[in-house]
């Protein structure tokens, strides 16, 4: 019998992220408490730039964006936001959306599977994803349950289950 396997990845639906940003921009433009504060949110290359005239307003815009991401099904673990920095008269927050599993996180997940998972399961790192193999599909499902229960700082999806 052939081995069963699945891949562990960390991906973001770019269209959903773009929709969340556009919704947040509309809400910031229309909300009464943001009137006259020059608050804005926009793409700046691959990162997201939030501007406002005070640190609290910048954090409030970030909060609006996080709410829109959650409603669109994107985990906040994939959003990496910095602290507000003063730039002239305005405050800026630069945020990025993380995709892929870093090599340190991949090693940590692989070690967790080796130590806590069923003994028949093997994992190997392939670039920014992890392939998990076993003869038993039940063991693979056990690994998925274990990783979902673990509090990792990476948003994980399980794909190519065969």
UniProtKB/TrEMBL annotation:
A GO CC term? cytosol
Q: Which SUPFAM superfamilies does the entry link to?
A: YajQ-like (SSF89963)
InterPro entries annotated for this entry? UPF0234-like_C (IPR035571), UPF0234_N (IPR035570), YajQ-like_sf (IPR036183), YajQ/Smlt4090-like (IPR007551)
Annotated GO MF terms? nucleotide binding
> What are the alphabetically sorted keywords of the record?
Nucleotide-binding
Query: Which Gene3D superfamilies does this entry report, sorted A to Z?
Result: 3.30.70.860, YajQ-like, domain 2
Q: What does this protein do?
A: Nucleotide-binding protein.
Family assignment from sequence similarity: Belongs to the YajQ family.
Q: What is this protein called?
A: Nucleotide-binding protein GCM10017586_27100
């Amino acid at each position: 019998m052939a081995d069963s396997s699945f891949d562990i990845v960390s991906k973001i639906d770019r269209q959903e992220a773009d929709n969340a940003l556009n919704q947040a921009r509309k809400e910031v433009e229309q909300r009464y408490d943001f009137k006259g504060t020059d608050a804005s949110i926009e793409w700046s290359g691959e990162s997201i730039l939030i501007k406002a005239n005070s640190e609290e307003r910048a954090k409030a815009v970030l909060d609006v964006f996080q709410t829109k991401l959650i409603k669109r099904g994107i985990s906040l673990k994939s959003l990496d936001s910095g602290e507000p920095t003063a730039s002239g008269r305005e405050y800026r927050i630069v945020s990025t959306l993380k995709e892929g599993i870093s090599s340190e996180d991949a090693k940590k997940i692989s070690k967790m599977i080796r130590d806590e998972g069923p003994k028949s399961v093997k994992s190997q790192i392939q670039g920014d994803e992890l392939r998990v193999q076993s003869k038993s599909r039940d063991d693979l499902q056990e690994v998925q349950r274990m990783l979902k229960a673990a509090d990792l700082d990476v948003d994980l999806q399980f794909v190519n289950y065969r």
